[in-house]
Amino acid sequence: MEISFFHKNLLGIEGLRVEEIRTILNATTAFKEISRREIKKVPTLRGKTIVNLFFEPSTRTRTSFELAAKRLSADTVSISSSTSSVVKGETLVDTARNLQAMHPDLIILRHSAAGAPHFLSRHIDVPIINAGDGAHEHPTQALLDLYTMEENVGDIRGKTIGIIGDIKHSRVARSNILSLVTMGAKVVVCGPPTLIPKGIEAMGVSVSFNLEEILSELDIVMMLRIQLERQERGLFPSLTEYSRFYGLNRHRLSRCKPGVLIMHPGPINRGIELDPDVADGSHSLILDQVENGLALRMVLLYILCGGKHDDS
């Protein structure tokens, strides 16, 4: 399988060319089929070793990467901050250099500090995938979201995507804005003024503070999690008040286009960002996002580990 990708690492969406994004999306369908087989394993990365280095809690992303590696027959090692020498005072660079001395083929890093994967890439030679760095970027989430959109609506060019909620603290929002604008979509961000970064229009998006006013324009609505762990206090009166103005319920869904699609990167705060009947309803692509995330991460492991694709 020929894949055009011109980077040693995947540190962010910023800097990726349209053809690189397109080739990743095109390859994802083939890898998605592997997970639907009776035997969900191919020898693509046999003999490769992948380290999952997670310094923040994660369920979907970490499990997705671990499963992706196992389905490609790679060996995996998972390390969290609580089980690493970081708790003894070791620096991130020293941790990574010690890992490099054991000759892994790829490191997948999640860290609370924005720029941590970029910093680490300047100190070690092992390829790195950014699995989320602070409020900066989450490139694999953006790519799987883009794949899920195009799987359901076709070419995203000219479509209007609404990203709703805590834009200020969301690495998912930033990476999605970068990917969607690059691929020609129209992006509208919406939320309380305190959760919309000043100057975000420079990223090529339009801004609204009134969800009711924009719903009828949107082809896809992406709801974001309220990230209380990253917020300072006083950005909105209460979760109840937030849900009243920015939550997506059946009433608001009725104001959308008939074929509107609903997405959420998870985890969902049910009853706040999304009512349960909307999250679980026929318009929802949330579980599709999870399935597609596994396939897309298989593609990225294949690319960055230099695997050989085998359909057998």
Task: Kindly summarize this structure in a few lines.
This protein has 312 residues and is α/β, with parallel strands linked by helices.
What's the topology here?
Layout lengths: L17 H17 L14 E6 L5 H12 L3 E6 L11 H9 L5 E6 L4 H6 L6 E6 L5 H15 L6 E5 L6 H12 L3 E5 L15 E3 L2 H4 L5 E4 L15 H8 L3 H4 L7 E3 L12 H4 L6 H20 L7
Describe this structure in words.
The protein has 312 residues and is α/β, with parallel strands linked by helices. It folds into two domains: 136 residues, Aspartate/ornithine carbamoyltransferase (Rossmann fold), CATH 3.40.50.1370; 148 residues, Aspartate/ornithine carbamoyltransferase (Rossmann fold). Helices cover 36% and strands 14% of the residues. It is built from eleven helices and nine strands. The strands form two sheets. A five-stranded parallel sheet has the order 7-6-5-8-9. Strands 2-1-3-4 form a four-stranded parallel sheet. The relative contact order is 0.16.
